[in-house]
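=== RUN LOG ===
request id: a7f3
mode: sequence -> structure
chains: 1
length: 254
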Amino acid sequence: MLRLFRQTPNASIDPEHLMLSHAGETFKVELKRVASAQRFTLRVRNATRDVVLTMPARGSVHTARDFAERHAAWIGARLKRLPQPVPFAPGSIIPLRGINHVIVHRPDMRGTVWVEPYMGRDACAMLALCVAGEAPHVARRVSDYLKKQAKLDIEAAVTQHTKTIGRPARSITLRDTTSRWGSCTAAGALNFSWRIILAPAYVLDYLAAHEVAHLIHMNHGKRFWALTHKLAPQTERAEAWLKAHGASLHRYGG
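=== RESULT ===
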């Protein structure tokens, strides 16, 4: 017991983050102590642009800082390769169901968001995501609109696939997750990232089918994949798209 109390002050003063400077840039590094870790490792989360240093539970912060400083150039190079954040602001181009839309502010209109044809400066025809109201509310209104569209599309896809298998979902919840696009609990509750509405429609349909298939098969065995392919024939195409472009969806709204 005495030893435990002696260790407490040291643990309490250990910072949870390190701040590194390299080539004129500053990086925030999260320290993550893991009991099973045997060495120091660094990784950059593509979705959130976070830098994480995993270290042994008894590792010192001083050693962690030395390790991070030796790899500061690597951190900087990895971050530079990541897509730059795209804010929900006038002029930004964001995908909706896989189709690029330019955000256009319409301050003369009141409280709504809609889509209409748009002709860009280079005479390139595309779609506009028009946002009414005051400028400070543009980002929130775009976010709310996208989440509403995600809810509509996901619920429709889940309803279709659950009817096919004859097994209803207990609930459908949308979140802003970074580690997975969807999940299914043992109780039949389905969870999805709202950002899947940014992907092409066949990708969203596949994700819904994938999680609905878990209502019957709580694994990734042969029968699970057979059912997923039956529900979503474009499974391979959708998985390839997510592998190639999925991480980039997290840059929107930053």
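=== NOTES ===
The helical segments are 2-13, 61-70, 72-81, 138-165, 201-213, 222-231, 235-245.
Confidence is low (pLDDT under 50) at residues 1-14.
=== END ===
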